Each structure stands twice: as structure tokens, then as C-alpha cells.
């Protein structure tokens, strides 16, 4: 691969200037999905993007899942993962495993990576500071929670001190029960509460496509109304339905725009935010 000359590097930075000016001082919530976190090299590139954005004045909040790692630990402990409508059935023991894996392992690994890349981060869970309050979603699912409120003070306190908040999506209720919260849903509520400029959902698909088997059929931009029409047509189907629903929820709560993108593509966050090309599907009001 040819290396860029000094002049070419300068031109690249100059072209990014309008985007840097636009996002400077604004909040961006990045939801990093478990299926997009499998490659160590890609994890490092995502953390590089996040650190760079913070250094140029973008207030980045990282919300993460870790579904595959939860399933792996459950299997090692002899517990079979079960799902209903795409949501993990979570009894008391599974809730403990979820908390252990997300808050104790994945969260701290991401914080460590950010620190290695020159950023400053603090990892917290939705339990800390009662950040995410929840209630039982469906008795069939056990301790899977619906978000009832978000306390953004702990997040804002970290941002004001210059830290990148890294949030894992477990929540609690007044009785102290721990709930497993869908990562996309939690990110939507957090982004809305923060009045974010943008929310980015990083997953393992390119975005909304007319044909899921054909990446060239990617739909680069949608309004909420167009998304509803595509759902009725069956274009938005399967696992993309709840993702788009979370995007719509975020927009309803005040987020300016939402992007669904492939987190397995190197530096896709920077491509989306700092170039004309963009990455994935942008959904706007």
C-alpha cells in the first residue's frame, strides 16, 4: 500500500475540518455490539477512532454489549443460553453471569484498550449511580429489563472531567434487582437523555439493505417514515427490525440522527463522521 505524502495527509485533515467543527463539543453515543467485537485488531481500531474523536473535542460515550462472551461463559459453566424473540432468557444465575461478564470483563477490557491508545476512560455499569433504572419486561424472560429512566449525571460528570464514559448495559430497580438490558435499547435511551448529536450502532452488517445478501443494495439514508414503509414491505426484517426500532426510539427522544453501520470495517466511525462518504445507513427524522 502506498503511503500518503505529507501534503496528502495535510489535505485529508483539511477536508475533515468542517466535520470536526460540526461535532466539536457535541455528544456522540457509540453502541459497540458484541458481534462486532470479535476481532482484537478491529477492537483496537475502534478504540483509536474513539480516542481521536475525544482529542478533537467530540464528547464520546461508549455503550457496549457482549452477547457472544456471555454465551461462552454460560456454556463453560454448563448453562445453556436460551433466547425468546432474540432476547436472552435471564434467570437469577444468568443475571449474575451477565453482570460478571459485562461489568467485570468486557467493560474493563475496553477501558484498558482506550488507555493504551492514549485516551482516558472510566468504565461504569447501569447500576452505578442508578444510571439505568429498569423493570421486568416479560416474566417469560426473567430478569430482562425495560428502561424506565436514565440518570445522566454520572455520565456528564465523567465527560466534564475529560473522561470517555464506557457503559455496560445492566440496570437495577428500587429493590436492587439486576436486569439484563438490550444494548441497542439502552444506547437509545442514554443518547436521548444526553440530547446527543448522533448515535452510532455498530454491528456486523453493513446497514439497512434491500437485499441482505447483496452489500451493494445498502440504503445510505432513510427517514423514519421511509423506514416504516420498508418494514411493511419486508425489506427491514429479522434482526434488523429491533435495531431500526431502537433508532426510531432514539430520534423520538431527541437524538439528531442515528447510523447503523458495520463495525467490522476498519475506522468506520471516522469514515461516517469526518468524511463525505459516510458509512452504513443514516436514519433521520
SS class: alpha/beta
Radius of gyration: 19 Å
Which blocks of ≥5 consecutive residues have pLDDT under 50? none
Task: Report the sheet with the most strands, covering strand number, pairing sense and barrel closure.
Answer: 8 strands, mixed
List the helices and strands and how they pair.
Layout: H1 6-23, E1 27-32, H2 40-55, E2 59-64, H3 67-76, E3 83-84, E4 87-88, H4 92-116, E5 121-125, E6 132-136, E7 145-150, H5 153-160, E8 164-168, E9 170-172, E10 178-180, H6 183-193, E11 198-203, E12 221-223, H7 224-233, H8 240-252, E13 257-262, H9 268-274, E14 281-284
Parallel strand pairs: 1-2, 1-11, 2-8, 5-8, 11-13, 12-14
Antiparallel strand pairs: 3-4, 6-7, 9-10, 13-14
What features would you describe in this structure?
It is a single chain. By secondary structure, the protein is α/β, with parallel strands linked by helices. It has a single domain (26-129, 155-170, 183-270), classed as 3-Layer(aba) Sandwich (Carbamate kinase). It is 41% helix and 22% strand. Strands 5-8-2-1-11-13-14-12 form an eight-stranded mixed beta sheet, sandwiched between helices. Strands 3-4 form a two-stranded antiparallel sheet. The model has no long low-confidence stretch (mean pLDDT 90).
Amino acid at each position: 500500500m502506498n503511503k500518503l505524502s505529507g501534503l496528502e495527509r495535510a489535505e485529508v485533515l483539511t477536508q475533515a475540518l468542517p466535520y470536526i467543527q460540526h461535532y466539536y463539543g457535541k455528544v456522540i453515543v457509540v453502541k459497540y455490539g458484541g458481534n462486532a467485537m470479535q476481532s482484537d485488531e478491529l477492537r483496537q481500531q475502534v478504540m483509536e477512532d474513539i480516542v481521536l474523536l475525544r482529542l478533537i473535542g467530540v464528547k464520546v460515550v461508549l455503550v457496549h454489549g457482549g452477547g457472544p462472551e456471555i454465551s461462552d461463559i454460560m456454556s463453560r459453566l454448563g448453562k445453556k443460553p436460551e433466547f425468546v424473540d432474540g432476547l436472552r432468557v435471564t434467570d437469577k444465575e444468568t443475571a449474575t453471569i451477565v453482570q460478571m461478564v459485562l461489568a467485570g470483563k468486557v467493560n474493563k477490557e475496553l477501558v484498558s484498550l482506550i488507555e493504551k491508545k492514549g485516551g482516558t476512560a472510566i468504565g461504569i455499569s447501569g447500576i452505578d449511580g442508578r444510571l439505568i433504572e429498569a423493570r421486568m419486561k416479560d416474566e417469560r424472560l426473567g430478569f430482562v429489563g425495560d428502561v424506565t429512566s436514565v440518570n445522566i449525571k454520572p455520565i456528564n460528570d465523567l465527560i466534564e472531567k475529560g473522561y470517555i464514559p464506557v457503559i455496560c448495559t445492566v440496570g437495577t430497580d428500587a429493590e436492587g434487582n439486576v436486569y439484563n438490558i438490550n444494548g441497542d435499547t439502552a444506547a437509545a435511551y442514554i443518547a436521548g437523555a444526553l440530547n446527543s448529536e448522533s448515535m452510532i450502532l455498530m454491528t456486523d452488517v453493513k446497514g439497512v439493505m434491500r437485499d441482505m445478501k447483496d452489500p451493494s443494495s445498502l440504503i445510505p439514508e432513510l427517514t423514519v417514515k421511509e423506514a416504516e414503509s420498508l418494514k411493511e414491505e419486508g425489506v427491514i426484517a429479522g434482526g434488523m427490525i429491533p435495531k431500526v426500532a431502537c433508532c426510531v426510539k432514539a430520534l423520538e427522544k431527541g437524538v439528531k440522527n442515528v447510523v447503523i453501520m458495520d463495525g467490522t470495517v476498519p475506522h468506520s466511525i471516522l469514515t461516517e463522521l469526518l468524511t463525505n462518504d459516510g458509512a452504513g445507513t443514516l436514519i433521520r427524522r
